């Protein structure tokens, strides 16, 4: 039994490892995703933090030189040319007069608020203006012998439970999402090739004519594919570690660091998922009548993990979803990265469910291989 | 020794096997001759347990294929049509893989593989991947796979299809050798000359059943024709689906 | 009299003026207890005022008398510390140890100020805040002050300040019952070292503000091997008495009026600004003004006895911030005209004094400063009003405390090859740039950067946080591009109670 399995497993590994196209497709994902994410995050962070100089159009600047000067100290300047954001700050002509008389001096921010790329810049400008307004108001009260703190009727003190690692929120979700999906994408091509492809190349009939059980055959295939999934996982973990290490998280007040402990944790948590992913995709591929059809089906089936993972990432999951495979594992990974308490019961239950699905799919595949319809695509 | 006893099999609306019975003995080359659609492939698939007969039985060296599937399969070497090679493996890896699947230890499998590869004069191509092999090289690889574990029975499905003259000769010589070694050789074909030249026994099939069985000479005698081809046409009542 | 007035005088430097009074001590949250690896110290999540970040707090027990031979008879003091965790701990074995000013301020209370000033340094390293013994949560030595109403009514001109300082200090000494000898800069250094060892940090980067620079220098002197870099912001050298603060304050006033004269709007509005100040001082010197003003918070009418002492203190504290500096000429003019409301506003900024540790303040002044005065330095201090009054009450109080002087070697400038970055504000009313020059005479790897328009504590008002982080990362100040420190930080002068929008010609 074991010897037969070994023979089958070795052959699957050998055959799959020489399938450069399928292997590379999986590895490209593992290699490319973190790098892509790294670039994406960097751009996003830049937009969010925008500590660089902000150039806008200031109209009628001579009306309020002190304000313009204040904005300059916050690195908000009037500019000309390409780098200028589409924000116009219009200072009213009677700015100085209003100031002197103690009337609110009007400034107009003219910008498109629905423009995502402007939002953080607009907020930054608004913040700077309100700080200036506050500063002047405080001094006005002082000049009248009144404690400016009177303006602050309540003092809201925020006690943030977050740790620097736990702030990543959405970023962590996306990072773990990409890690978990590797287990599926790295397996996809191989799973189709070793099942639908094997049948299309006519070697499946020959194999099934040999003295072995179809379950052995299926298990050997599934385990071999899982090995590649795990290799993909390992790769994406290592690449992620370096790629995310280059994103300037600290500017946002949090960090995402994939240390060795996390890698080990991800591998342990990922193993059942790899088995499930391989068995599911093999089953679906066998159910399809042709290679092409299998590709379509598998792509459709991969929506399920994607949706489960998305739901976790964007935190729109109902409570019961947290017990489901993928969602629970991802949740646990996020918790691990955040340094929060890992939801052990959920992780356990979902891991068991994951392994059950692996069992069911493997068994179903072996039943399929006993079906004349499936084997000969009748 | 292969025995087929009163097999019935319906696929869809078609009665593919309709009371098929014959036997192929050791030390004999038996040809399964029939027009396209006669049920040859269905017969072989049933014989290997890939299809389940609706009724009737088939046994290999006394092992019933339905009940003792694995033992029965172990007695067979299959030369399939198409060959079902793994393009990314070398003939050596490929042949050794099947040797091990048939229960040989990896050491024994390695040895047997080397032997069969040199027997078929494949040493030059033994460590090249099958990708890009000629039809003859593919045939040899498939043949090596079928006989590497030295099964008593060798089943060949349309073995000469698409082969050039040289390859056909290699195949023919090998089958004769196997016969002399006492193997039971069963092959299906719709090529008349092939069957006439090689077979000791011919099983003529049409519409899922045996129309006649005997040596080529017997069949000619029985129909009163000079050539097997004429005899065959007489036997099945039409020349449709026969290659000369 | 009152602690309050006294402690006000003793404020060598009420540091970090951004820090407003009434520190809100974080109640240790009932979250899980975290223990870090190399330590036996328990770290508990905690929060500091105005800083939403979750910090980790803990304590170490230290002998009260560091020179005691027998441990058994020695009292212990509990030293409280907090860690502001690095955002991305690239250097887990290093920390930035921040020293608060005062003397007597709690580093933990100033957590928000440090978190802001060290925000770039924090990206990769923890920030460590230790409450110096006698301050904050490390056994605060505090005596009651005077409330605002009595303070306003108090007439310093008729009271015998020296006698009052004496009785007042006696009461405080009675209440605290401590030997201030255990609370000097020299005695406190070992507490910081104990915290460092307990937490397992191998190397420290120091950041000190105001008096904290002196504490940092003393730590370097005692534990040179633990320090990789030191940033001293608003430097207090060992070889400089705090009595010189009067001269510093006067220089800062002079700079303010020079700026007003150079400013078109200010000069137009207050052509006699300098004379007005002198006039008001002379008037109050001659006779305090008794009047009624609105309480700045309750709006009740209360008595104000406006004395020269009150005016000088108000000005002194107004000088700390560029915002309140902009109010000064207007305030003086209004006061001369009989409207004291703006002056009442400026008197509010003295509130920062409230949370200072009186004990530590006196320990530093009486053991490390007063004993080393010479006839020459006394004459020097006496040149300014602030120096004179400070000197008088310091001597009176120290006579009560009877704290022995520290070793004379203490007053020698620190000798160190460690990279040191010194920061000074050109308008600083307490620690002028010249003090930094005094401090660095024996520091071959030091660089002194001056932000010409900054006041006290440069890191709170300029691009210095970035420079500090670069300095820590490069472990050298040589390549810092300090040009951003030249940024204009001064504010346009208020020409009426609503302010103005225009700047000086120079700024435009």
TrEMBL record, chain A:
PANTHER family: ABC TRANSPORTER PERMEASE, ABC TRANSPORTER PERMEASE PROTEIN NATB. One of its GO terms (molecular function) is ABC-type transporter activity. Keywords: Coiled coil, Membrane, Transmembrane, Transmembrane helix. This is ABC transporter. GO terms for cellular component: plasma membrane. The lineage of its organism: Bacteria, Pseudomonadati, Pseudomonadota, Gammaproteobacteria, Alteromonadales. It comes from Alishewanella agri BL06. The chain crosses the membrane at residues 27-45, 170-192, 218-242, 262-284, 296-317, 347-364. Residues 108-142 form a coiled coil. It comes from the Bacteria.
Automatic annotation (TrEMBL), chain B:
It holds the Pfam family ABC_tran. The keyword Lyase does not apply. InterPro entries: AAA+_ATPase, ABC_transporter-like_ATP-bd, ABC_transporter_ATP-binding, P-loop_NTPase. One of its GO terms (molecular function) is ATP hydrolysis activity. It comes from the Bacteria. Keywords: ATP-binding, Nodulation, Nucleotide-binding, Transport. Residues 2-232 form the ABC transporter domain. Belongs to the ABC transporter superfamily. This is ABC transporter-like protein.
Automatic annotation (TrEMBL), chain C:
The lineage of its organism: Bacteria, Pseudomonadati, Pseudomonadota, Gammaproteobacteria, Alteromonadales. One of its GO terms (molecular function) is peptidase activity. Residues 1-26 form the signal peptide. One of its GO terms (biological process) is proteolysis. It comes from Alishewanella agri BL06. It holds the Pfam family Abhydrolase_4. Residues 385-484 form the Peptidase S33 tripeptidyl aminopeptidase-like C-terminal domain. It comes from the Bacteria. This is TAP domain-containing protein. GO terms for cellular component: membrane.
